[in-house]
Amino acid sequence: MDKRILVLGASGQIGTELTQKLRELYGNSNVVASDIKLGTFEMMDAGPFEIIDATDKETILSVIKKYQINQVYLLAAMLSATAEKFPQKAWNLNMNSLLAVLELAKEKHIQQVYWPSSIAVFGPTTPKNNTPQKTIMEPTTVYGISKLAGEFWCNYYHEKFGVDVRSLRYPGIISWKTKPGGGTTDYAVDVYFKAVEEKIFTCFLSENTRLPMMYMEDAVNATIQLMEANPATIKIRTSYNLAAIDFTPKEIAAEIRKQIPDFTIDYAPDSRQQIADSWPSSIDDSEARNDWNWKHEFDLKRMTLEMLNNLEKK
Ligand code: VAH
């Protein structure tokens, strides 16, 4: 099938880089970027752009028809920390956008859907180390509840209506091109920006808070690899565990200090500490590695070099 792709939430942290990569792979004119508000000049100049409220099924359908879209990547969502401040808005955005896109796939307007889940689907009763694909899942955040519900909607539409929807449980994602908004893992992005700009950083999580993390390039590559995989290799239609590295604020600070020796960090845990404490410290993603040959490329050292080199040039 000639891929004609619509990215919903293209201005977000992942959406921005996913859109760039998809345009590189499939051609700028074959990837329509969209978000609730205007995108960056680069994104709107490089290819088609549409203003879309991701919960508005009719508008999504009109854009699908306008560009003969056959694949939708739904990246629009409200992340963990912000969702705690606006629970009803978060539930509405995170759930009704997914249900709108799944219905459009069920009605055969599109052939394939990508929807991201998160390690936020796990909760304080989940085994914390090397968290397995199938385990206790009792999320205690609005974001986690919405992602857990979303996973089972994906599985339902696949089993009941044959919808080809695919999903990954992203860990914290780290990038230098676009700052994330409203996440609990965002400290691991901010720390690099502040190390380069001010050589000092106050971390909103405690120094030994270990969380699963991944460099953006790995996350984007995993997403496209999953979407290109032979359907017969995809055994999980809720959402695959996906892992790369895990570290604490203390460890990432030590890695940064290898490049910026006078960098200092201090700790002032806030309400996001409780969210982080409810999540796993590391993830077992052997199903993804076995089913469709996933493997990560960036460890903490290589990611730190990549982040600092690019931020110093920015
Ligand atoms: C957040 N970056 O912090 C997101 C992610 C696993 C964390 O889902 O909310």
Walk me through this protein's architecture.
- The protein has two domains: 5-172 and 214-241, Rossmann fold; 174-212 and 246-279 and 300-313.
- It is 44% helix and 15% strand.
- The chain is built from twelve helices and 14 strands.
- The chain has helices at residues 13-26, 41-46, 57-67, 80-85, 87-106, 142-161, 187-197, 216-228, 249-257, 272-277, 286-292, 300-313, and strands spanning 5-8, 31-35, 49-51, 71-74, 112-114, 117-118, 164-166, 168-170, 172-174, 200-203, 211-215, 240-241, 245-247, 264-267.
- α1 (13-26) packs across α8 (216-228), α5 runs parallel beside α6 and α7 (187-197) packs across α12 (300-313).
- The protein is globular and about 55 Å long.
- The model has no long low-confidence stretch (mean pLDDT 97).
- The site of (3R)-3-hydroxy-L-norvaline (VAH) has 13 residues, from loops.
CATH fold-level name of the largest domain? Rossmann fold
Shape: globular
Order of helices and strands: EHEHEHEHHEEHEEEHEEHEEHEHHH
Radius of gyration, taken over Cα atoms and rounded to an integer in Å: 19 Å
* Gap between N and C termini: 38 Å
Q: How much is the average pLDDT?
A: 97
* Spatial order of strands in the largest sheet: 3-2-1-4-5-7
Instruction: Please give the CATH architecture of the largest domain.
Output: 3-Layer(aba) Sandwich
Strand content bin: 15-25%
Q: Tell me the helix content.
A: 40-55%
Tell me the name of the CATH class of the largest domain: Alpha Beta
Total number of β-strand segments?
A: 14
Largest sheet: 6 strands, parallel
Q: CATH H-level name of the largest domain... which superfamily?
A: NAD(P)-binding Rossmann-like Domain
Number of helices: 12
Q: Would you tell me the structural class of the helices and strands?
A: alpha/beta
Heteromolecules bound: (3R)-3-hydroxy-L-norvaline
**Total tally of structural domains:** 2
Spans of at least 5 consecutive residues whose pLDDT stays below 50 are none
